[in-house]
Design brief:
heterodimer; A: 257 residues; alpha/beta; Rossmann fold; seven-stranded parallel sheet; three-stranded antiparallel sheet; 28% helix; B: 325 residues; 2 domains; elongated
Chain lengths: 257, 325
């Protein structure tokens, strides 16, 4: 069984995000870059499938030169090879363009399952896996917490508001994954050494034959609205007194209860 | 040329979901500015009667695809049906709910329609004659104003953010054949496992009572459940609490959980890691209850209580019960 896992390099969750003064983007200075946490679940699941069924795990990643570290991390975890789509023209690629690039790169790779994180924690867009499935003309199941491959079918568990759905899909398919699926492994030292020698193909938009034109783009980045300073409730300094004061404020000032 | 503001109406168990009325009201507001009609697409089985209800919130026309193959929802069947209606009628703007189902559908439509989509928007507007969608990025650490170069311009709207406004319009039914062959569908829902009834999802709640490491263990959440019960709230959790196995992953609020904007967020025993603050700081009102007066959560809170939460929360429950009686 051959598996493709798509990964993205994103700022760490503890990163402060500062908008550039002209609103053209975010200031990348001082940011620690990591593999998108949801993609880690995808890589882990790909490795588990490989352990169970055999086959190859290919990592596909769109990003600038620094994104190679994320590909190497996935290779160090145990993936076999990588494709790095690196082109300055794709720097602000939207979901459609990104998925077009991934689809073009994946077309040359044999696959039964494509795993993607349900969303990247930078743009929070949550579209690429779905668009990729549409462009490849294969089914998709999104935001799942359990994946079972059985012959030419995959069965997944998808939490929705107030329920969980068990969905079956034919293969090949795109499966987008979320937290709760597995515990991603750490790369071992021998894994890290081996990863350095694993093959990574680097491709640009021209090599993939895709257009870099975006269907949607962020015209302007804006810092979040500042919250007005709040008040610390002192009341009569007993827990009961403070609780009574908060309840009163929520009722009379905020009018939310 | 593309024309009209469209919505995809979402329904479950035979009833339209609240987000559908938020979409209709928002679409009406936009269409009144551009002088366009509002149309809704309803895909399902036995859904024709929903059209009249959508009319109440400003929908002129309702495209209905009625077929047993559309229940329960699957991405392939619904995306194919909506894409057919959109391709045949060429709307300029398409709004979808940023619910679990809406996000799934919208993303598939981007592929089918070669369109651009702004996910989980907190504002949409017409500026200089163009549609602009405003959305949080980095879980709310910054916002982006999204502009579009393709039709339809798509936006999914975060539930509970956009007001519902009644404007009586015709809600005239236009039936269409989506051309979806049930036998050709590649995905199938084989089981629906319902959670205990009455549980409110944090992504949809007006009020969230949330607990972190300060709850000390899973049993600590009992007092939060009680407060939530009185307020009609959902119970949320920080990443620390979820990673410790105290609460289910579906309750996690933050950058790697759910990004929420309820009217009221009560943070109990949550210090306020940046990834948590990102996920909840667009809440209308924030209450923080924490022993540590240095906790970063207090910088975001409208009302801060520095005290033992195990004493404050039960007292707050009793006070709210009194006030709301």
């Amino acid at each position: 069984m051959n598996i493709v896992a798509c990964v993205k390099q994103v700022p760490d969750t503890e990163a402060q995000i500062k908008v550039k003064p002209d609103g053209s983007g975010i200031d990348e200075g001082g940011i620690k870059w990591v593999m998108n946490p949801y993609d880690e679940f995808g890589v882990e699941e790909a490795l588990k499938m490989k352990e169970k069924f055999g086959g190859d795990v290919t990592i596909v990643c769109l990003g600038p030169a620094r994104a190679m570290e994320t590909i190497r991390t996935a290779l160090a975890m145990g993936a076999d090879k990588g494709i790095h789509i690196n082109d300055p023209a794709l720097e602000n690629a939207d979901a459609y363009t990104t998925a077009s690039a991934l689809a073009a790169a994946i077309k040359g790779v044999p696959y039964d399952v494509i795993l993607c994180g349900q969303r990247a924690i930078d743009d929070d867009s949550g579209q690429v896996g779905s668009v990729l499935a549409e462009l490849l003309g294969i089914p998709q199941v999104t935001v799942v917490t359990k994946v079972d491959v059985d012959g030419q079918k995959v069965k997944v568990v998808r939490p929705i508001e107030g329920a969980q759905l068990v969905i079956e899909s034919s293969l090949p398919a795109v499966v987008t994954v979320t937290k709760g699926l597995n515990e991603p492994r750490y790369a071992s030292l021998p894994g890290i050494m081996k990863a350095k020698k694993k093959p990574v193909d680097v491709k640009d938009a021209a090599a993939l034959g895709i257009s870099a034109d975006a269907k949607a783009k962020v015209g302007k980045f804006i810092p979040p609205p500042a919250r007005p300073p709040g008040k610390i409730i002192c009341a009569d300094d007993t827990p009961e007194g403070k609780a009574a004061e908060v309840a009163k404020l929520l009722r009379e000032e905020a009018k939310v209860i | 040329m593309a024309k009209g503001v469209w919505i995809v109406a979402e329904h479950r168990d035979g009833a339209l979901r609240k987000v559908s009325f938020e979409l209709a009201s928002t679409a009406r507001k936009l269409a009144d500015q551009t002088g366009d009609e509002v149309a809704a697409v309803v895909v399902g089985s036995g859904v024709e009667a929903m059209a009249a209800e959508l009319g109440k919130y400003g929908v002129d026309k309702v495209f209905v695809a009625d077929n047993a193959a559309f229940e329960p929802y699957t991405t392939d069947a619904h995306a194919a049906a909506v894409a057919k209606a959109v391709k045949d009628n060429d709307p300029a703007i398409l709004l979808v709910g940023a619910s679990v189902q809406g996000k799934d559908l919208a993303a598939a439509l981007v592929g089918k329609l070669a369109a651009g989509l702004a996910t989980d928007c907190t504002d949409v507007k017409i500026a200089d004659g163009k549609f602009v969608a405003v959305r949080p990025m980095y879980a709310g650490k910054c916002f982006g104003e999204v502009v579009f170069n393709a039709a339809p311009a798509m936006a999914s709207l975060r539930p509970n953010v956009f007001p519902i406004v009644e404007t009586a319009k015709a809600g005239a039914v236009v039936k269409f054949d989506a051309g979806v062959d049930a036998g050709a569908l590649k995905t199938k829902v084989v089981e629906v496992q319902k959670e205990a009834s009455g549980k409110i999802d944090v992504a949809e709640a007006n009020i969230i009572v949330s607990g972190g490491r300060g709850m000390k263990g899973p049993e600590g959440y009992g007092i939060l459940e009680e407060l939530a019960g009185v307020l009609g709230a959902a119970v949320g959790a920080s990443r620390a609490a979820v990673d410790a196995g105290w609460r289910p992953q579906s309750d996690q609020v933050g950058q790697t959980g759910k990004v929420v904007s309820p009217n009221l967020y009560i943070a109990c025993g949550i210090s306020g890691a940046i990834q948590h603050l990102a996920g909840m700081s667009s809440s209308k009102y924030i209450v923080a209850i924490n022993k540590d007066n240095e906790a970063p959560i207090f910088a975001k809170a409208d009302y801060g209580v520095v005290d033992d939460l195990f004493k404050v929360v039960p007292a707050l429950t009793a006070e709210c019960k009194k006030l709301m009686a």
